[in-house]
Amino acid sequence: MFGRDGGKMLLSIDVIFKIVLLFFVLVTIHEWGHYYFAKRAGILVREFAIGFGPKLFSFIRGETRYTLRLLPIGGFVRMAGEDPEIIEVQPGQTIAVGLKQNRVDRIYLDQLDQRTDVIQGSVESIDLERDLKVKLDIGGETAVYPVDPKAFMIARGKETQIAPLDRQFGSKTVGQRMMTIFAGPLMNFILAFILFIGVMFMAGMPVNVKIDRVEPDSPAQIAGLMAGDIVTEVDGKPIKEDPTALINLIHESPNKQMNWTVVRGGQQQIIKVTPQIKDGVPLVGVRLTSDKRTATFGEALQGGWMNMVEATKQIMTGFKMLVMGQFTLDDLGGPVRIVEVTGEHASAGLTQYTFWFAIMSLYLGIFNLLPFPALDGSRLVFLALEAVRGRPVDPNRESMVHFIGFAMLMLLVIAVTYNDILRLIKG
Q1: CB atoms within 10 A of CB 357
Q2: CA dihedral over 114, 116, 120, 123, signed as positive or negative
Q3: What phi, psi does 224 have (nearest 5°)?
Q4: Per residue in 226-239, pLDDT tens?
Q5: What is residue 169's DSSP assignment?
């Protein structure tokens, strides 16, 4: 996949692009869910970021800064009121304000002598959350100015939009806040379902059960079965388009002769096959496939939902085994392993890549709903506690819990990444 010749190098670039696309879309759609419902609730969204760490690229549109950061291990939506974000102005402090239509739209905290077209004075009182007013002592006279709800505070070369109480995350109802948090995983679930439906259209619906390959010296070859044979009946039981029915009949017939009705070249014939036990399982030595037709929308909808339900069960089983200690650290895969497996699926064709895309989106949604500190699920637990108690948990305590959880997650990522690198080195 990573060879030097032109064709392989092109394939390598294609696979790398698909890997980057998958992670970018999954994180973006997740954070967009938080962003969209925060905006609907009237919350001021300060930053929409993909990745963590140093900024690579950013721009401001409307009230929000959109940022691409160095470490591609997630993303975040920074909402007003979640973190300390504005320097508090104290009574007696000298500031300068800029007016627009008789309202303060700029509050300067430093380099006051370099500001032009401003009013400078000593703060008697200032309220940037409720009353939106600032009272200044200007040369011994008191002046009161209304503050624009979208005014900016400027300090150390940085502009920060103020956030009146009704624009802060904590001022919204518990329901609005829960929806804002839940919306991230919800978008991943919706994307996964759409992708599973797409897989059904791409893969098509089977119309028969056909032999794709016959293993050498197997019971199937000895009996005379050939690649391309369409299996219609076994011992008088119709097979139709369900390979599971054929597999179950084989497993139920160890060392027992079976009558297979097959269609070859348009002609029907009966072939006698006797499954032999290999590694404790009755087998005949064939690989099955089928001819396909385009799925109807109803079939794609039903098949997509069934695939999503089955994948959810498998993911939850994996989490259960992890909690019960049935996995060791060496069994876990980190970012390197995920990239490696994603590359394998990307190389296997569009249908397989789309299926893996859906699995990863579903996994990201479920993982984020786990009640582990720093994940969306933990934040939902705190909001549920607030709803039951009638008052919020101490924000400082909640922030500490999330900080510890995030640190633990980062340590786990480092540990499994180290294992992934060792695994690659050892081959």
Answers
A1: 25
A2: negative
A3: 105, 10
A4: 999 999 999 999 99
A5: G
Supply 282's token pair: 């009755």
Q: What's the CA gap between 310 and 415, in Å, rounded?
A: 30
Cα 372 to Cα 92, 129, 152, 330, 410: the distances in Å are: 44, 32, 36, 21, 13
Please give the angle made by the CA atoms of 155, 158 and 161, to the nearest 5 degrees. Answer: 90
* Count of all residues that appear for the chain in the document: 427
Residues 6+ apart with CB under 8 A from 162: 86, 107, 128, 147, 149, 150, 151, 152, 153
State the CATH architecture for 205-293.
Answer: Roll (2.30)
β-bridge partners, 155: 158
Q: Which residue has the tokens 């394939």?
A: 11
Low-confidence ranges of the chain (pLDDT < 70): 1-11, 83-85, 325-334, 416-427
| Catalytic residue chosen out of the listed positions 31, 82, 141, 233 | 31
Nearest residue to 367 via CA among 332, 330, 404 = 332
Q: What is the C-alpha separation between 325 and 314, in angstroms, rounded?
A: 17
SS3 content of the chain, % helix, strand, coil (to 5): 45, 30, 25
| Residue pointed to by tokens 């430093």 | 110
Q: Where are the beta strands (DSSP E) in 30-165?
A: 45-61, 64-79, 94-100, 103-108, 119-127, 133-138, 141-155, 158-161
Closest CA to 104 of 133, 74, 67, 75: 133
User: CA–CA separation, 415 vs 408, rounded Å?
Assistant: 11
Is residue 35 within 8 A of residue 77, CB to CB? The reply is yes
Distance of alpha carbon 100 from alpha carbon 420, whole angstroms: 57
CA distance 400 to 392: 15
Pair 130, 165: CB distance under 8 Å: yes
What SS3 class is residue 123? Answer: strand
Cα–Cα distances in angstroms (integers) from residue 177 to residues 37, 130, 304, 405, 421, in the given order: 9, 20, 30, 20, 40
Cα 116 to Cα 85, 98, 101, 119, 159, distances in angstroms? 26, 9, 17, 9, 17
**Residue 304: which of 381, 172, 194, 154 has the closest Cα?**
194
Give the pLDDT confidence of 295-350 residue by residue, as tens digits: 999 999 999 999 999 999 999 988 887 777 666 656 566 677 777 888 888 888 89
> What are the residue ranges spanned by the domains of the chain?
94-162, 205-293, 297-426
31 a catalytic residue: yes
Burial of 324 (0-12, 13-18, 19+ CB in 10 A): exposed
